[in-house]
Amino acid sequence: MRLFSVLFVCLVAVAVVVAVSVAGPALAQSGPAVPGQGQPSPIQNILQENRALIEKSSRRTIGPAIAALRDSGLPAARNVLEKWQAKALYQRKSDGLFFFAEKAGEDGYRLIDIATGADADADAGTANRQDLDQLKPNSGVRALIGAALVPYQLTDPDPAVRSGALDAISRNGEAAHLRALRGAIASETDPGLKARKERLERLLTIAYDPDPSARIAAIESFAGDLGVDVRAALNPLVATTRAVTTGAPPEGENIARRLIPGSDALPEAEAYRLLVAAGLAPPRISAADRRNALAAHIEDGAVAGIPLEDLNSEAARERAYAALAARGLVPPTATTEEVQAALDGHGFYDRYAEPDPAVSAAAGAALDAIAAKLGLNQAVNLSLDALSLASIYFLAAIGLAITFGVMGVINMAHGEFIMMGAYTGYVVQQIVPNYTVSILIALPLAFAVTFAAGVAMERLVIRWLYNRPLETLLATFGISIALQQLARNIFGTQARPLTSPGWLDGALHLNDVVSISYIRIAIFVLALLFLALFLFIMRRIRLGLEVRAVTQNPRMAASMGIDPDRINMLTFGLGSGIAGVAGVAIGLYAKVTSELGQDYIVQSFMTVVVGGVGNIWGTLLGASMIGFLQKGIEWLNPSNTLAAQTYMILFIILFIQIRPRGIVALRGRAAGD
Question: Model-level pTM greater than 0.90?
């Protein structure tokens, strides 16, 4: 009987061993069983392994869980990350399993398997809301999930999704993105996106590739590139921190330069502060604090036993303070000798944040090449700004060049004709909502309105004041004030918008440094057109010939049958009409107010006087000179535009003293005047 029992136990043991050996691998592959669910999917296993991190959902701790999903290689990983980011991932309270869920009924939810996207099995297909926890990642966790989705989005069939992924990498690139970018370049079919991927791959190579030669090659490929992203990638490689050491610098330090205390690069006070911050020297109080401490401990005409009359030197005051510190009456401080000894006993140097000297050297060389090209492009950009400003001044002054230069009339109301033209454009836009059509209508209408106003002003006022400059100045100044007040009464004091057409929005970007707005390009073209128109009128048609004749010799012109009175009226009207057109152009980028003209009247007179009174080429040269001069002064002193205006006026005054007739002197009646 006993033998039979022993044999039975042995057979049972053998059967158990065989069963375990057969079922063990299958159990190991399928993972832990969940009651009522069979074997969970691999994606569910990953979530279960990181369940504690996911339930806490903290930005500081969630990284490993997100990385596990991202690096799993499972097809369902992207969908899980997207649903999690969209707050569509749920966890069942009873067993901790994760599902997607859709509302079904009033308080029920249909559970969806995260691996297959199909409905969960019959036992787990639905759940009540109170049985589920919705995962609601905060903004920080959602940002991490978004970064993890980037590798999937780089190969998405939708170009917009791929472009968005590249934007995300540009804003917040990571080392993990480098491998994904390299894998996505070959399959990219869009040339623009492929170029962006290749550029980002080189930028990430600079920052994250462990191979120094690959980083150096990527750095050298950007030599002369003016992109802001390139400078942002290279600058950290040449950034330095100041360090102090008691002996030779540690091995492996990438030293930028050694520093000597007391030099311009490292003043002694700063060097000693470094020693104090590193705990290598005691702090030192200021001379004023030491003096106050000594004064607070005066007893019987002495400090720490040293008579006051003996405290007439720095060394004596230091000894007195040291004596007080030894008694515990004041905090200890270093003496001059101790400070000097501490400085002599330590070494100071700047070290690169980048540990590899070859990489930092390549970055420095690339930045030097970029700096040289950057300076050249900044000069080009400044010249374009100056040219656009000169075109504005020329457009504003060309009408004054006619009324003041040709006729010799000091018209202080010229700025108000500019203002009238701008308001004409505004009124037209209220009637014609199409901005392109309204501008095309406003330009000739502004000319007509201000031409008529100029003719009326000449007939009613100016014709009676010829050869009386002071009275003309006072009269036109009064008209200027009256026109400003009339504009306030009609349009109010609030600035009115004069909107440019959509095709003038934005700017022409040649690179990250050089750009010019389309509006300024349009004004430059308009100025050239008016220059050509003025030259055509003055040289090709009868009115221009008569104006030139009256300008050079009015009596001889009258004897030839030319009516000087009529010519003066038309000339004044022409100058006023051109000012109105200039007002429409200026109003496209400046605020249209009753004071608009006052902003340009001084520059207009300076342009005409500096260029040469009565000469259109002189006006052009004067506008160019003032525009470049103003931009140059503003570049030298960008924080104070008022000072720039003052310096410019002073320069103009000196220039007129040297060349009173301007750059191009006029011959004829005006020259004789």
Answer: no
